[in-house]
Amino acid sequence: MSSIARDSGRVPPVWERLPQIFGYPFKTACLTTLGLAAILYLIGMVVPLLGLILVIAAWVVLYKFAYDVLEATARGWMDPPEIQRKSNSWVLVKTFVLFVVLGFAVTGIAIVTGSLTLVAAAAIFIVLALPAAIITLAMSNSLMSALNPGTWVGIMRSVGFPYFIASLLLFMLSVSQGMAESLVAGLFGPSLAGHVGVFLIGGYFLIASFHLMGYLVYQHHDMLGVEQEVTAADRARAANPDLSPLLQEVEGLVAEGSVDEAIERLQKELRQSGLQPEEHERYRKLLRLQGRTDELLAHSREYISTLLYGLEQPKKAMSIAEEALRVDASFQPEHPKQVRDLARLADQYDHHELVIRLTSPFGKQNPKHPHLPENYFLGAKALFEGRGDEQKALRILRQLQKHFPDHELRERVDELAERAERIATS
Description:
Protein name: Tetratricopeptide repeat protein
Keywords: Membrane, Transmembrane, Transmembrane helix
Strand content: under 5%
Oligomer: single chain
Helix content: over 70%
Shape: elongated
Order of helices and strands: HHHHHHHHHHHHHHHHHHHHHHH
Largest sheet: none
Low-confidence stretches: 1-8
Mean pLDDT: 89
Transmembrane segments: 21-43, 49-70, 91-112, 118-139, 160-180, 192-218
């Protein structure tokens, strides 16, 4: 997810999860189940007496797992289930009955009305309602509930437009499955390899489709009243095992939408024992996200000191100062010494604008500070070398020559003043 989506606790919609949906059947538990079902199917194709039973068993294994995938995903598990869930071996029979009843319903409308328009409308409605029926069967394990049109309409109304997008995606998956199966059948013909290949393709698309439906339920679980077994915090921790315990806790709070609480947790740790660099960065990112500018600037003042004298990360310290000045042009570090040290670093790395913005207000704020001559010299140097403003640089240098004639930088001041004057008068 993009960082903004993650930080706001937003659950990405189904259509943003297509790569994960297509990759889901390749996870270990899925491949294991698909492989076991394929073996049963293969044996069933070659064993004369028990063949049909084994083929049916293969489909039972596959459908039972698919329903477990749907139900587990709907309850917050983004990895396939590795243990048996609530579905039972009768799920294939219930699914078969569901399809038969829906088919008879369309046939009955055709016989009773004889209207092609009504038949087409009924067929379209049933195709659209089929995901809702399957979802109901997976979540309730009740065939009667799955056959209730009121339940279908309730799900469609609760989910809204995303339901129809998901239905379109399921239809596209079905078309893709048909094309892939036709390709395999064309390549291998009615051979054993062809039959097993078609079975594997069907299994892949079945698992992907049921995961998609489960994710749709998960995305709208509040509206559908589906209890979650995995919290957003649990998922955040599982997705970031390399993070510090504090950051895992913070990511969990963010995933639940409790961004301000996550900030407070980081603030508490900052006051008590300090933060690690990655924790500082997360804290700053959350402050930006929430628009808490004053706290971001306050942290910048503290963090610059840590970066300069604790972590010894001078470039990072300059970056923090530059960001703070973009937020507030009047920003100044916590202590006058930091102005001098940052200005030295900025001069060393040719960050001329940073030097100018740090040193320009220093004289008014600290008129008698011992670092004033050096800061003004660095500012004049930045004006001359960075902006090419030799006139202004020369005025500052003349003031330094006048008021600090015996300063240790006098030789460098005179040299720079001579260069600036030469260019100014040329």
